[in-house]
Amino acid sequence: MYSGADKLLHRIALGSPALLEATFDIERAAQRRRIAETEIRRPVFIAGLARAGTSILTRLLHASGDFAAPSYRDLPFPLAPNSWARLGGKRHVEARERGHADGLTHDLDSPEAIEEVFWRAMEGNRYLRRDGLAPVAPDPETLANFRDYVCLVLIRHGGTRYLSKNNNNILRLAELAASFPDALLIHPFRDPLQQALSLLSQHRRAVALASDDPFRRRFMTWLGHHEFGADQRPFLFEGAPGPGEDATRVDYWLKLWDSVHRALLAAPAGVQARQLFLDYDALCARPRHYAPRLAALAEAPIDAAALRAPDARQAEADPALLGLTAETHARLQARFRGAFD
C-alpha cells in the first residue's frame, strides 16, 4: 500500500510526537470557530481486548452513516485531518484483505484504530512503558485537547456522532466517562480460550510479517498498536503476564485475557453506568435476537447479516488458568444478559 516516498513521509510525520503535537495545534487554531460550534453527541468507544469482533462491530455501526471515525485517509497527519484533506488530495487504493488474514478487507476510508496516535503524542511518556501499557489517568489539559480532536474528526468526516475503535482506551475509561457523560463504552468479549488462541495466532503472524518488513513494525508502534506482534506489550492490570513470560504460549494470552476483563468488571460506578459488555459469541449465534437490542442501545441500525462467527479451535492450556477465566467469563456473560435479555 505504501511506496518508498509514502514510508518516508510516514516516518517523518508519525515518528515525532513533537511534530504531531505541532500539527494538532496548527489545525486547532485554524478550526477554532468550527470546534466551538461542534456538538459531541452520544459518542461510542469500542474498547477491550483484540480479537473479539471489534473491527466488525465498528464497521456495522459506521455503516449507519451517523458516525464519524478516523481512517487511514487521515494519515500521516491524523491530528490535522482537515488540513491534510486539503493538502493530501484524494488518493485511491483498492480494497484489500488486511494483514490479519481473517477475510476482512479495508481501504483508505474504512473506520480504523487511528485515535491512539493522539494519546501517544500527548501522553506517551506517561503510560507507554517498556514492559507494557500502564493505566495512568490523563492530564486534564490532555482530556480537553481530546475533545477538540474529536470535534476535528467530526468536522472532517461529517458525522453527527464520534466512533472510536481503540483498545488502549481501557487504560483511561474513568476519564473518558467523565469527559463524555453520554458516551457508550462497548466491551466485546469472546470465550477466553478461543480469544486467547486467536491472539496467539495473530501474534505469530504479526511477528513474521514484521520480520519480513521492518516498516510494518514501526508503523504499528507509531499507531500505538501493541496488542500483538514484534512490539507486543501487555496491559499492566493486576494479574497481567510479566516480562519473562512466553507470549508464544496460549497460557500467556489467557492470563492477559483474565487480567483485562477483571479490570473492566471492577471499573468504578461512573464507568459501569456507561459500560456495555457484548458477548460476541452470543451475538453471532443469535443475531436476530441480539442485534436489534444492540441497535437500540447504540441508537444506530445494525445489519445482522454482516456478522460472522469465528471458527472454534482446540488446544491444551493450564487447567488453573482455564478455571480462572471461566469464572471471569461467567461474570461477563451475566453483565451481558443483564443488558440484553
How would you describe what is shown here?
Pfam families: Sulfotransfer_3 (PF13469). InterPro entries: P-loop_NTPase. This is Sulfotransferase family protein. It is a single chain. The chain is an alpha/beta fold and 341 residues long. The chain has a single domain, classed as Rossmann fold. The protein contains 15 helices and 9 strands. The chain has helices at 4-14, 17-30, 32-37, 54-62, 81-87, 116-127, 140-157, 173-179, 192-212, 214-222, 250-265, 269-272, 280-285, 287-298, 319-340; strands spanning 44-46, 67-68, 96-97, 105-106, 128-129, 132-133, 161-165, 184-189, 275-279. The chain has a 5-stranded parallel sheet with strand order 2-7-1-8-9. Strand 3 and strand 4 (105-106) form a beta hairpin. The longest helix is centred in the C-terminal third of the chain and has 22 residues, at 319-340. The radius of gyration is 19 Å and the shape is globular.
What's the arrangement of secondary structure elements?
Blueprint: H1 4-14, H2 17-30, H3 32-37, E1 44-46, H4 54-62, E2 67-68, H5 81-87, E3 96-97, E4 105-106, H6 116-127, E5 128-129, E6 132-133, H7 140-157, E7 161-165, H8 173-179, E8 184-189, H9 192-212, H10 214-222, H11 250-265, H12 269-272, E9 275-279, H13 280-285, H14 287-298, H15 319-340
Parallel strand pairs: 1-7, 1-8, 2-7, 8-9
Antiparallel strand pairs: 3-4, 5-6
Helix pairs in contact: 1-10, 2-6, 9-10, 9-11, 11-15
* Mean pLDDT over the residues: 92
Give, in spatial order, the strands making up the sheet with the most strands: 2-7-1-8-9
Main sheet attributes: strand count, strand direction, barrel closure: 5 strands, parallel
Helix content: 40-55%
Provide the structure class. Answer: alpha/beta
Under CATH at level 1, the class stands as Alpha Beta
Shape: globular
* Fraction in beta strands: 5-15%
N-end to C-end Cα span = 44 Å
Low-confidence stretches: 97-101
According to CATH, the fold-level topology is Rossmann fold
Give the tally of β-strands: 9
Q: Gyration radius, to the nearest Å?
A: 19 Å
The CATH architecture would be 3-Layer(aba) Sandwich
Protein name: Sulfotransferase family protein
Pfam families: Sulfotransfer_3
Organism: Sphingomonas kyeonggiensis
